[in-house]
Amino acid sequence: MTGFEIGGASAADMELISRWADEEGWNPGHSDRFAFAVADPGGFLVGRIDGEPAACISAVRYGSAFGFIGFYIARPAFRGRGYGIRLWRAGMERLGGRLVGLDGVVDQQDNYRKSGFRSAWNNVRHEGALRPNGPGGGAGFEVVDAATLPFGLLAAYDRRFFPAPRDAFLSAWTGLPGRTALAAVRDGRIEGLGVIRPCSGASRIGPLYASTPEVASALLHRLAEHTPDGVVAVDVPDANPAATALLAGLGLTPSFEAARMYTGPAPEAELAGLYGVTSLELG
């Protein structure tokens, strides 16, 4: 492995990593990398062979006790030569002492189990054009631009579904140009939140939080109005059967699957209100 070096990702590297993920068929958002970079600026690593980028991984720290692994990619020409595992070890070392999560594609799950990860649920991407469902509101709640709400309320709501504070990331994720964030509000309380972003394939919705299927459906239909063709994709946790039933009932079909895995017991989260995870790369 002479000439193999691991270092932090630059802005140019972040764009390259996003292209690699797109080539893997993961369909990242066009501007995701800008939100990822503020989540943990030191959390993205690139392995280079004689200066040429050959592999990448993200090992993002959240708070003092949680971390998330993503973007684990070795370029095809460099696979099977030990570079990927060296980068993996560097990422895991960066998250030492923390509970670590990841979303593992099917063909890598056995390898993750050998590294101490255990499956908690599957995130199944549902994709397609939504069946019509009338107006985008519902009895007793209204759908509003999330930017009109105090950010502290949005951050507190997000914490019900994610195991650590991630305010800088959430601010960028909901506010980047080209994406739309909508909230469902009832009597001054947030009862749902959804974000849609343009991608090279279907526009991705995530997160999608909702107190009821009715709220989730209203958010989905309003968000789908912000696509060029009405086609959306949502990574749905099968730990919430109501979410799976809703997306199937609205005409979306499974197209991709990854297992949410942790190195210890799954952290507490309101799975009954989690209709779509934020990102398979950062949790």
Helix- and strand-based class? alpha+beta
Query: Could you tell me the strand content as a percent range?
Result: 25-35%
- Number of DSSP helices? 8
Rg over C-alpha atoms, rounded to the nearest angstrom:
19 Å
Q: In sequence order, what are the helices and strands, one letter per element?
A: EHHEEEHEHEEHHEEEHEHEE
Shape: globular
Largest sheet: 13 strands, mixed
Could you report the average pLDDT, rounded to the nearest whole number?
94
Distance between the termini: 32 Å
Number of strands: 13
The low-pLDDT segments are none
How much helicity do the residues have?
25-40%
Lay out the secondary structure.
Layout: E1 4-8, H1 11-23, H2 32-39, E2 44-49, E3 52-62, E4 66-74, H3 83-94, E5 99-105, H4 109-114, E6 118-129, E7 142-145, H5 151-158, H6 167-175, E8 180-186, E9 189-197, E10 203-210, H7 213-224, E11 231-237, H8 241-249, E12 253-262, E13 274-276
Parallel strand pairs: 4-5, 10-11
Antiparallel strand pairs: 1-2, 2-3, 3-4, 5-12, 6-11, 6-12, 7-8, 8-9, 9-10, 10-13
Helix pairs in contact: 1-2, 2-6
Q: If you had to describe this structure to a student in words, what would you say it looks like?
A:
- It is a single chain.
- The chain has 283 residues and is α+β, with helices and mostly antiparallel strands.
- It has eight helices and 13 strands.
- It has helices at 11-23, 32-39, 83-94, 109-114, 151-158, 167-175, 213-224, 241-249, and strands at 4-8, 44-49, 52-62, 66-74, 99-105, 118-129, 142-145, 180-186, 189-197, 203-210, 231-237, 253-262, 274-276.
- Strand 10, helix 7 (213-224) and strand 11 form a beta-alpha-beta unit.
- Helix 1 (11-23) packs across helix 2 (32-39).
